[in-house]
Amino acid sequence: MLLFCAFQGLQSLQSSINSSGGLGLVSLAILYVFFVIAGFVTPGIVKILGTKYALMGGMVCHFIYVASNYYSDWYTLIPSSILLGFASGPIWAAVSVHLTEIAVKVAPIVKETHQNLIGQFTGIFFLFFQLSQIPGNLASSLILLYSESNVISENCTNFSATMIEHKYIYILISVFLLFDIAAIVILALTVDQLPRETPFRSTKNKFQVFLLTPLIDTFKVLVNWKMFFVGFMFIMGGLEQSFIFGTFTQKYVSECVGVSRVGFMIIVLGLTSAAMSALLSRLLKYVPRFVFVIAAGLINSGLLIFLLTWKHTASYPLIFLFPIGWGIADAIWNTISSSFVGILFPRNSDPAYSIARMWLALGFVIGFIAANFGDIAARVYLLLAVAVVTVVLYLVVEVMVYLQSKRPQSLLAGDEINS
Fold first, then answer.
1. Which residue from 4, 67, 352, 407 could staple onto 132, CB 3.0 to 4.6 Å apart?
2. Where are the beta strands (DSSP E) in 67-166?
């Protein structure tokens, strides 16, 4: 939670405070490009380091990225974005693998199916992940509040975010670095390393176990039709998050009512997503997954259609009510997509989660590039199209998996990866 406090706070501000030349959005796009690239080697990295030390290494990269924002320029922000992008793959894969393996081991003890436990554990994780948006964004809004005056612009032409005094930026980055340090210390002292399953005796065996086999498994998962279809859920997740962090924060908040309100808006988003994630971890035991996915698609589509008809003016109700609906849908995409991958690929969770996060990162890349070059209407239509396609493809997978499970000797994709 503490680790993401800093990154969430910075990500929501990049399009506003580093808007000159599009630096903020370009750096985020580059970060997620390298997130995609890292996906091919992420399983090997997690196998070599284990989940705990993969997380620790990623946290150090987080620290470097945050520190580079002391002097945000092309020669500081771009290299640190590349570094963090490459480290983000192992971070997310390690978290997902850790949750899945614990769920599988605990399931017989608590007399619960591992599918339900994966959904519950994933929901709990995303509860804390969404709550991480509160401390960092609260700090940014309170600090930046002192740097602004006469921030409301009825025609949304307030560009004061680019003229914030450096001393406020320095204070903000220092607070974010304290979050990262606390996260590293807590992880080192409280999280156990999961045991490796495969022993090795020679250098050749190390290469086979830690690099070649994970790489082959990753490509096998990549070409599996179920992963391809489910991948659109992650692309949708990346697109909808990049829209709220890249487009909505800049065009509807910063330029309309001031950059200091961005943090408050993200807090509303985070609280809503956290509450919905916690609720999902329970409701998934009683309500079918497809009900929530359809609901998420309808919520996103409804809000996007509303933006198309909304006159672009300053509005406090808009910036605080819109994130409530968006946060509900965001929690559904995050929780359902992650838990669904664990259910489909229980025996190949390492490469499956790596590929899933590559799809998520691809969604972010597309979203941030669109935010830098396309107009608002074009971004909205893109999201609408992907939302419809995502729901349809997800339902196809659900139906096929259901039919497959009714066959006497059928195996899920996780048991036979080429099914």
1. 4
2. none
Using alpha carbons only, how large is the chain's radius of gyration in Å? 21
Nearest in space to 400 (alpha carbons), one of 215, 225, 241, 148: 225
Identify the DSSP state of 407. S
DSSP annotation of 160 reads: G
**Cα distance between residue 131 and residue 135, in whole Å:** 8
DSSP 3-state assignment of 230? helix
Mean pLDDT of the chain: 81
Q: What is the DSSP secondary-structure string of 173-185?
A: HHHHHHHHHHHHH
Q: Are 273 and 296 in contact (CB under 8 A)?
A: no
CA dist 251 and 346 (Å) reads 42
Residue 366: name the closest of 12, 129, 32 by CA.
Answer: 32
Helices 42-68/2-17 angle, 10° precision: 60
H or E segment to which residue 84 belongs: helix 74-110
Number of H helices, E strands in the chain: 16, 0
Question: What's the whole-model pTM score?
Answer: 0.75
Span 175-229, pLDDT tens digits:
999 999 998 999 888 877 776 544 444 445 555 555 566 667 777 777 787 888 8
DSSP state at residue 419:
-
* Closest C-alpha among 221, 238, 189, 253 to residue 342: 221
